[in-house]
Amino acid sequence: MERMEINARAFAYENKTMYRRFHYVLAGVTLATCLGLGACDKAKAPETALPVANVDVMAVALREVPVVFDYVGQTESSQQVEIRSRVSGFLEKRVYQEGTMVRQGDVMFVMDRKPFQAALDAAQAEYAQQKARLDTARANLARVRPLAAKNALSQKDLDDSTGQEQAAAAALEQARANVTSAKLNLGYTTITAPVTGLSSFAKKQDGSYIDATNSLLTYVAKLDPMWVNFSLSENEMLNVRTQTGNGTLKLPPLGQLEVELVLADGSVYPQRGHISFTDASLSQQTGTYLIRAVVTNATGSLRPGEFVRVKLIGAVRPNAIAVPQNAVQQGPRGAFVWTVDKDGRAQQRSVETGQWNGNAWVIESGLHAGDHVIVDNTLRLMAGAPVKEHVVPAPAANVEAGAASAASGARAAGG
């Protein structure tokens, strides 16, 4: 009886094991079948075609592109004059109003005139005395000369009379010079503006004693024309010389380089200037070359010491390539543009950009004449996607447009 129960249990266990094995085999066959059918369906699925994109395309061509260099400058008076007292004495009155425009010849200060008037009176009295002495000496010589000729008087008497007349004449000349000096000193008590310009504050107040150690009274700064000083680094200067030498940059004569000023509020100063001076030596303190421009300032709107942006206009890059701003994009590997290959498909092209020119980028490398650059509808493009081209004209060179920053201008100078 016990053996029959054991056999029955063994038979049930064996059946259960076989059932599990059969279940696993069936599941594997089913999975393989499904995978095979999926693979067949995928292989049989038709390839999805990329849609044709309508794009605006510009044909790249070599042309002459204006270059605008941008620097930071500071205005300076073309003639700033120190107003000093030429005589020592008490300052009686300040006549001008501080900070206003003064004209050449306008009275600015008045010194106490009384001591100088007294000195002039004394000098004139001395002159009158010496003139009387000269008249007496001449009259005496006129009497002695004929008597000496007749041997009525000795030669010594004639020599003494001649000497007295000459000494009196010399003393008269000295007295005349003293009168002139006294008149000048009296005139110097009225201090006038030597130039037309903007006055500064008075450094001495009424009643102050003025002598050679504190003779500075104020300044007058001439406003028209106005100087604008800016600097060019040694590297920038060398790069400009290199590029002009190899023909990649053309500069007009120095006097024909126009200067445009952009004021602190972003407005453009209406009058353009020109370069008037370049320092021949490098400043050891700053490591730069000083360059000076001259700008007319008839209205006086420019004041000394203002910071302005200086744009140099007149240089050009021959045989350059420029594309619209929206054609250049930034990617993980830098700037790139979309181009159309010979099969009519979009392709990415890495480029190296230069400075701005209006709404266009100057391309220094990566593009060649004849390339077709996509300038619009670039956001949905994929590499290899077919495109339908609509050719648009190249952007016009804009010399009036804003230039790059000073750093970009330096990079443009350095290529």
CATH architecture of the largest domain: Beta Barrel
- Portion in beta strands: 25-35%
Task: Return the CATH class of the largest domain.
Answer: Mainly Beta
CATH topology tier name of the largest domain: Elongation Factor Tu (Ef-tu), domain 3
Which term fits the overall shape?
A: elongated
Order of helices and strands: HEEEEEHHEEEEHEEEEEEEEEEEH
Oligomer: single chain
Helix content: 25-40%
Low-confidence spans: 1-8, 10-19, 22-47, 399-415
Number of strands: 20
**For the record, what is the CATH homologous superfamily label of the largest domain?**
Efflux pump adaptor protein, beta barrel domain
Structural class of the helices, strands and pairings? alpha+beta
Mean pLDDT: 83
How many domains make up the 3D coordinates? 2
Main location: other
Domain Multidrug resistance protein MdtA-like beta-barrel: 225-312
Subcellular location: Cell envelope
Domain Multidrug resistance protein MdtA-like alpha-helical hairpin: 120-189
Would you spell out the secondary-structure blueprint of this structure?
Layout: H1 2-44, E1 53-59, E2 63-84, E3 89-94, E4 101-102, E5 107-111, H2 114-149, H3 155-188, E6 190-192, E7 197-199, E8 209-210, E9 216-233, H4 234-246, E10 258-262, E11 273-278, E12 288-295, E13 307-324, E14 329-331, E15 334-340, E16 346-350, E17 352-357, E18 360-365, E19 372-374, E20 387-391, H5 406-413
Parallel strand pairs: 1-20
Antiparallel strand pairs: 1-19, 2-9, 2-13, 3-5, 3-8, 4-7, 5-6, 7-9, 9-12, 10-11, 10-13, 11-12, 13-18, 14-15, 15-16, 17-18
